[in-house]
Amino acid sequence: MQVTLTDRQQVAQGTLALWFTPERPLAFTAGQFASFTLPDPAAEGDKGARRTFSFASSPNDDALMIATRMTASAFKKALAAAPMGTRLEMMGPTGRFTLHQDTSRPAVFLTGGIGITPVRSIVEYATQKGLAHRIHVFYSNRTRAQAPFVADFRGWAQRNGNLKFVATLTEEAPAEPGFEQGPIDESLLNRHLSDLSGPIYYVVGPPGMVSAMKALLARLGIDTANVKTEDFIGY
């Protein structure tokens, strides 16, 4: 399927969001991803002109949105420079990082940086549809300037009584209300969760963070059957 680039905005320091219109209606499940191929030969670089991105938008939205941390790669540079109206080839959607069906079990998302994108898709959709799932989102960033979509989650938390959003910073003291300081750890989880054993946990982000969160959950005695993970490799 071809998708057409319709908008592009910087949503945090070093983070770019892009919106696309598909050539025909696209059905996907919140939390899934797809592969995008640029037609520009300049995008090839060492890894080719195709990259995989999670959808950051809800399946109910008119446009598809992705977001990416910018790097010096040929692909990222070409994506940032592509004119509006550029057509990309998209393969997908695919992926199993999707919300569980049993609404009696809370969903707890542990994420950082650009790993927030599939979580944004899931939470926006759950809020739009009024899903009964109780959802906690723990979102870690080094600095406030590097944290995209915080305002979106805070807005959804005001509308959705089942949603709790906890943002934390690891490399600076919070300069505004609503942020905690420090990593996602046992202390943070215990302050916000009344029962650590009941939820289904979703861990998504760079491989180092995913490994650290899996180790944390193992120390807390969480069964691996109750942990879903997704690594963002080479983002």
Largest sheet: 6 strands, antiparallel
Q: Which fold does the CATH topology of the largest domain refer to?
A: Rossmann fold
The chain-level structural class is alpha/beta
Strand neighbour order, sheet with most strands: 4-3-6-1-2-5
Give the integer mean of the pLDDT values.
Answer: 94
- Whole-number count of domains: 2
- Number of helical segments? 5
H-E order: EEEEEHEEHEHEEHEHE
Radius of gyration: 18 Å
Strand content: 25-35%
Overall shape: globular
Oligomer category: single chain
Note poorly predicted spans: none
Can you identify the CATH superfamily of the largest domain? Nucleotide-binding domain of ferredoxin-NADP reductase (FNR) module
Percent range of helical residues: 10-25%
Number of strands: 12
* Distance separating the two termini: 23 Å
* CATH class assignment of the largest domain: Alpha Beta
What would your notes on this structure say?
With 235 residues, this protein is an alpha/beta fold. It folds into two domains: 2-94, Translation factors (Elongation Factor Tu (Ef-tu), domain 3); 107-231, 3-Layer(aba) Sandwich (Rossmann fold). It contains five helices and twelve strands. It has helices spanning 74-81, 116-129, 150-159, 186-192, 207-219, and strands at 2-12, 15-22, 33-37, 50-54, 64-69, 87-94, 107-112, 135-141, 163-169, 179-181, 200-205, 227-231. The strands form two sheets. The protein has a six-stranded antiparallel sheet with strand order 4-3-6-1-2-5, covered by helices on one side. Strands 10-9-8-7-11-12 form a six-stranded parallel sheet, with helices on both faces. Strand 11, helix 5 and strand 12 (227-231) form a beta-alpha-beta unit. Helix 2 (116-129) packs parallel to helix 3 (150-159). The protein is globular and about 50 Å long. It starts with a strand and ends with a strand. The model has no long low-confidence stretch (mean pLDDT 94).
